Amino acid sequence: MGIAARKAKEKEDLRRAILDAARALFLQHGYERTSMRMIAQRIAYSPTTLYLYFKDKDAIFHALHSEAFQLLGGRLAPLAHVADPMERLFAMGRVYLHFALEHPELYDLMFIMEAPMCVVDEMHIWEEGDNVFRVLTATVGEAMKQKKLRKGDVEITSFLIWGTVHGMAALHVRDRCFKVISPEKHEHLLEDGLDLFISWLKGLKP
Amino acid sequence: MGIAARKAKEKEDLRRAILDAARALFLQHGYERTSMRMIAQRIAYSPTTLYLYFKDKDAIFHALHSEAFQLLGGRLAPLAHVADPMERLFAMGRVYLHFALEHPELYDLMFIMEAPMCVVDEMHIWEEGDNVFRVLTATVGEAMKQKKLRKGDVEITSFLIWGTVHGMAALHVRDRCFKVISPEKHEHLLEDGLDLFISWLKGLKP
DNA sequence: CTTGACGCATTAACAGTGTTAACTACTTTT
DNA sequence: AAAAGTAGTTAACACTGTTAATGCGTCAAG
């Protein structure tokens, strides 16, 4: 069945082409400001063809959303080998923040934009986010067990840590911080903020 | 000139009516999903009339944006009377978070959405945000001077604190946390997160 | 009192949006 | 060779933000 296989491959290729075009345009102009017609034009197909491969615009978004989470997951995975849970936690923070700085539009799409969560609403679960959060809670729990982090509710502590890093990332991605912070600090603002947070975590009285 | 005054009042009334209608619709359906025609219909005017009072949709947004900052500012102002800077800092955090919980859509509009910042871009200044941030830096600076908060760069420390509270608020407003956190903790998640953060700030070794 | 100007609001229109229905080719199966 | 299925198209619908042209009513000046 060489022919059927070739056809399946061509179908998959077009699917990928759509996603590539959509990603490029979403990242360049934002979700709301890129139209189905623009995506179609970029790959020289009719706009309605997109609907043969994706239910609607949100479905394209959701596919990219999952893709981005795979990228972040791939960067977080190697840190599993860091033995000390505190060091692992800090490394995760740095990787996470670095990801947000390197791919602000992807980060936006994953943790800030509203579109993808509508799809998620229906199944009451956000698998991609849940996976990342579980890695965090596991690390926090381990650190607490080893008494390297002040004991407390693991979930709430993890939420606070996630919120802290996300908050700085979100203020940056949505351009709220460079408008209020002295220009000379812009360059390393987020790294400095994270370093300060880490030093706080280290210097926490038990 | 009673007539001229009445006319001016009528003009101002209509302006307010537009803003009221726009606010209600923005908060109910979100910015992108409410159209100029919907706003116009709600006050029984032609859609084009809105353009006699506001340059475009973004201008309406920006007006509401400023309005919301006045509301938050009004809640933050009384805290100036709290003598102890640390207590003042904590109270500010609670007021800020409470505001985000009570008016999630307004908070979204102020600190998350992209629309209003485009207008701000042109003048390179974000006055409303700057005012709030300056109150924060002043308090942080005072707390450091009194050695009640670990010494460090005031701006970066303030940014970290803002980021932490904003992060939790943003995850809530954009519905990223209830999908990964155990249901029984939803109710007080943000308050508990803030309380934990405050306890960390209190228990910081000098 | 009439004329002209001005301000406010309207209708009509433009170019664009996401999405669906109907239709055309072309392949595969019967 | 006829029927069924597949992949892509064009045309259309009901919207969107926004602008141009137009009407209507009130005021000031001649």
Short description:
Two copies of one chain form a homodimer. With 206 residues, chain A is mainly alpha-helical.
- Cα-atom radius of gyration of chain A: 20 Å
Q: From the helix content, strand content and strand pairing of chain A, which structural class follows?
A: mainly alpha
Low-confidence stretches of chain A: none
CATH topology of the largest domain in chain A: Tetracycline Repressor, domain 2
Q: Can you tell me the CATH superfamily of the largest domain in chain A? A: Tetracycline Repressor, domain 2
CATH architecture of the largest domain in chain A: Orthogonal Bundle
Number of helices of chain A: 10
The CATH class assignment of the largest domain in chain A is: Mainly Alpha
Summarize the main sheet of chain A.
none
Helix-strand topology string of chain A: HHHHHHHHHH
Mean pLDDT of chain A: 93
Oligomer: homodimer
Q: What is the end-to-end distance of chain A?
A: 66 Å
Compute the number of structural domains of chain A.
2
Largest interface, with counts of residues having CB < 8 Å to the other chain, equals: A-B, 50 and 50 residues
| Helix proportion range of chain A | over 70%
What report would you give on this structure?
Two copies of one chain form a homodimer. By secondary structure, the first copy, chain A, is mostly helical. The model of chain A has no long low-confidence stretch (mean pLDDT 93). Chain A has two domains: 54 residues, Arc Repressor Mutant, subunit A; 147 residues, Tetracycline Repressor, domain 2. The radius of gyration of chain A is 20 Å and the shape is globular. Chains A and B meet through helix 8, helix 9 and helix 10 of A and helix 8, helix 9 and helix 10 of B. Chain B binds a DNA duplex (30 and 30 nucleotides) through helix 1.
